[in-house]
């Protein structure tokens, strides 16, 4: 038996969760159950895999198990960017190998298309999905150099880009803080918690979703037996869609890095405050430096700030850490919006990214009857949706060029053992954040 020695526990203050529709979560499983298909993880990846399995096998029951409530975990805690274009921070033009970049673009677009269609089909209006593009913005020389190089890479890939400079930027994003921004039109922005809640409530009828049900141990054999606090689930085939927690199910051990990043949401701006900043009414900014700040103006006129990282090896939130990062968020916010210094944050939270040292995710078979789409590497809204869907299609014998691409892609690298791992990761995070300068 494999004991799952790290179980999810996120902090209690995810802003998107609390400001979206309160729903009645599906009841936890009490006792035993059994199904040909069991999916673990009620985030973007698991929801997509469960839905597609149910559509591919309409005669079969699919059980989807989520340790917390849907919308409360990382899938409901992100900044809500559904990004199309690739951004390879290891390549000089941030694009690198063109064939690889095209595949990533198509994968992301596939995820975007699935989410857009589901929002329309199930009328998930409170997801506020808007095709608004994104601004990648910079203030430091290093950041400007990134934008110039990335522009060349994107143009070589045939993607539309627009450079916006100086004061002109204020008309777009309500701040003259940045020197330059690269606008790419393909990104969609969403209220991520409302979106995953809506996805959970529109699953096909042959999916049984158990929320607040944590899997604590697994027996692998001809049938797979999953243990939870009040009983067992017997599965014909198991699909792991639980991001970095997948490495505690006996696979890919020490290959993922649960790195947390943090968000804050202000209260809604008053009409006078909105007028004081100007700009468009709905936009999203990502930083040129990976250690910089993400910003959004939301559908309900709040400002979102996301920055700061911590390494939480057990994948759980660290007590008191949100108080610490709120100070950093405040500084970043007031630098960008000096007329809004009286506007308080209503929520500050963190969420775990399933990072890997080489940036590779895992897709495919883990052992007989066990499959996974794991390690979101920070952009799992669209990637998780696409990989969860493609995995379910592969299990139904439907192979596609993107499936072949994912199966052939590099797998996550090994991490060095502790304590060297924590020392190394903490050093990288600390120096990265210090070097980000004003981008943070
Ligand atoms: C602050 C922040 C900002 C971000 N911004 C963006 C962004 O703008 N765009 C973007 O694409 N990505 C962003 N991300 C990353 C994105 O949220 C993740 O890539 C995405 O959530 C991954 O989805 P997933 O379904 O693979 O995994 P998760 O969302 O991590 O879902 C896995 C689920 O598995 C459950 N689980 C784990 N173990 C068990 C168990 N033993 N039993 C039962 N259930 C279990 C967990 O509770 C969890 O809900 C951001 C993340 C954060 C924290």
Automatic annotation (TrEMBL):
It holds the Pfam family DAO. Residues 1-12 have a biased composition (Basic and acidic residues). Residues 37-394 form the FAD dependent oxidoreductase domain. Keywords: Oxidoreductase. Transmembrane segments: none annotated. Residues 1-20 are annotated as: Disordered. SUPFAM superfamilies: FAD/NAD(P)-binding domain. This is FAD-binding oxidoreductase.
């Amino acid at each position: 038996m494999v004991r799952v020695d790290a179980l999810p526990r996120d902090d209690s203050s995810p802003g998107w969760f609390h400001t979206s529709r309160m729903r009645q979560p599906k009841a936890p499983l009490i006792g035993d159950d059994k199904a040909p298909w069991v999916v673990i993880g009620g985030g973007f990846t698991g929801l997509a895999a469960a839905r597609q399995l149910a559509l591919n096998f309409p005669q079969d029951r699919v059980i989807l198990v989520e340790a917390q409530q849907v919308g409360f975990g990382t899938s409901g805690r992100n900044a809500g960017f559904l990004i199309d274009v690739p951004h390879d921070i290891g390549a000089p033009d941030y694009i690198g190998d063109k064939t690889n970049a095209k595949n990533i673009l198509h994968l992301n677009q596939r995820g975007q298309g699935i989410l857009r269609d589901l929002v329309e089909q199930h009328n998930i209006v409170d997801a506020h999905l808007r095709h608004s593009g994104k601004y990648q913005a910079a203030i430091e020389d290093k950041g400007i150099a990134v934008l110039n190089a990335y522009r060349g890479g994107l143009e070589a890939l045939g993607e539309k880009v627009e450079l916006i400079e100086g004061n002109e930027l204020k008309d777009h994003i309500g701040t003259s803080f940045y020197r330059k921004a690269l606008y790419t039109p393909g990104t969609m922005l969403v209220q991520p918690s409302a979106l995953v809640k809506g996805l959970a409530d529109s699953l096909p009828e042959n999916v049984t979703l158990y929320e607040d049900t944590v899997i604590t141990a697994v027996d692998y054999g001809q049938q797979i037996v999953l243990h939870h606090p009040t009983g067992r689930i017997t599965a014909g085939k198991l699909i792991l869609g639980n991001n970095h927690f997948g490495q505690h199910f006996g696979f890919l051990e020490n290959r993922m890095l649960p790195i947390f990043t943090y968000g804050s949401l202000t209260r809604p701006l008053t009409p006078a405050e909105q007028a004081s900043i100007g700009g468009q009414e709905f936009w999203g900014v990502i930083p040129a430096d990976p250690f910089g700040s993400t910003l959004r103006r939301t559908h309900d006129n709040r400002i979102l700030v996301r920055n700061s990282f911590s390494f939480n090896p057990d994948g759980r939130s660290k007590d008191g850490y949100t108080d610490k990062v709120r100070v950093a968020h405040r500084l970043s916010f007031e630098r960008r919006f000096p007329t809004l210094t009286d506007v308080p944050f209503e929520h500050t939270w963190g969420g775990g990214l399933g990072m890997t040292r080489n940036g590779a995710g895992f897709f495919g078979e883990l052992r007989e009857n066990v499959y996974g789409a794991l390690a979101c590497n920070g952009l799992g809204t669209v990637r998780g949706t696409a990989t969860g869907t493609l995995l379910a299609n592969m299990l139904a014998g439907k192979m596609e060029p993107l499936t072949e691409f994912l199966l052939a892609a590099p797998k996550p690298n090994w991490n060095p053992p502790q304590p060297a791992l924590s020392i190394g990761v903490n050093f990288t995070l600390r120096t990265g954040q210090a070097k980000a300068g004003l981008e943070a």
